[in-house]
Amino acid sequence: MDAPRVLLHFADQDEAAGRLAAELSLPCAAIETRRFPDGETLLRLPVPVPSRALLFCSLGAPDARLVELLLAACTAREHGVAHLALVAPYLCYMRQDMAFRPGEAVSQRIVGGFLGGLFDAVLTVDPHLHRIDRLEQAVTGGAQAIALTAAAELGAFVARTAPDAVLVGPDEESAQWVAAVASHAQRPHAVFVKTRHGDREVDVVADGGPSLAGRPVVLVDDIASSGRTLVKAAAVCRAAGAVSVDAIVTHALCAGDDLDALHAGGVGRLWSTDSLPHGGNVVPLAPLLARGLREHGLA
């Protein structure tokens, strides 16, 4: 398969795209966008566009991004792009994987199908999958669906930075991530049990595992969104005698008042990959993304 000849990206993600382009020895080309007064997007691709291309776009602020991807992918096809792969370090809309009440949209299936119809391949890192086993069950339409994991990179950071820590998954959904990160960090781990009372109200309790008394703790999860679950888990850790509580996640969405509340609630440092710009970015993803693209024949 011929290699892509350009990495397309949106101007506000030029630094992250540039790091990946450097890893792949590919030229970068920015997609121009501007907003009309009513909020509509005007988009212009850098033409001409080669027949094979990568499009880098991490999907924070997802609703606006999805429209930009629709415009960019369709315009790329009109200009002769035969193979277009999306590199989305953070993949949005993966958490709603079933209808919990009548009439709810199963957004994972809808957005996954939308992206699968636009792109020949979709590559991401640690997507929020729980009731399905593989990304291709969400990203449909014939697209190649590739889910990488940053567990080794997160584990290596924890091993360097908190070598004496016990790793804790704040809820059952985090079990797959904390187990993998703990294996790479060669640290003991535990998983708490969560009861959700709404979008922002949860209770967390410990359910066995190593003693936390007198030990530093690092909470591990795929996403920090509102941070409420991490705050509840931190309180349990402190009550169990932990001397410090930090957290590491693949995707840090938590910002503003939520981030302040996270720290006020007993979480010291929030570390993350650079899948989304955040003050806690400590783990670069460009090497992992480049390896994944090469291993799957996309670069």
Structural overview:
This protein has two domains: 7-148, Rossmann fold (3-Layer(aba) Sandwich), CATH 3.40.50; 151-283, Rossmann fold (3-Layer(aba) Sandwich). It has eight helices and 15 strands. It has helices spanning 14-24, 62-78, 107-118, 151-161, 175-185, 228-239, 256-264, 286-295, and strands at residues 7-10, 28-35, 41-44, 52-56, 83-88, 121-125, 144-148, 166-169, 189-191, 193-196, 202-205, 216-224, 244-252, 270-273, 281-283. Helix 4 crosses helix 5. The longest helix is centred in the N-terminal third of the chain and has 17 residues, at 62-78. The mean pLDDT is 93.
Summary, kept brief:
The protein is of the alpha/beta class and 299 residues long. The chain folds into 2 domains: 142 residues, Rossmann fold (3-Layer(aba) Sandwich), CATH 3.40.50; 133 residues, Rossmann fold, CATH 3.40.50. It has a 7-stranded mixed sheet, with helices on both faces. A 6-stranded parallel sheet has the order 9-8-12-13-14-15. Strands 10-11 form a two-stranded antiparallel sheet.
Overall CATH architecture of the largest domain: 3-Layer(aba) Sandwich
Order of helices and strands: EHEEEHEHEEHEHEEEEHEHEEH
Strand order of the largest sheet: 3-2-1-4-5-6-7
Characterize the quaternary organization of these chains: single chain
Please state the average pLDDT score: 93
Helix content: 25-40%
Shape: globular
Rounded to the nearest angstrom, the radius of gyration is: 20 Å
Count of domain modules:
2
CATH fold-level assignment of the largest domain: Rossmann fold
List unreliable stretches of 5+ residues.
Answer: none
The CATH class of the largest domain, by name, is Alpha Beta
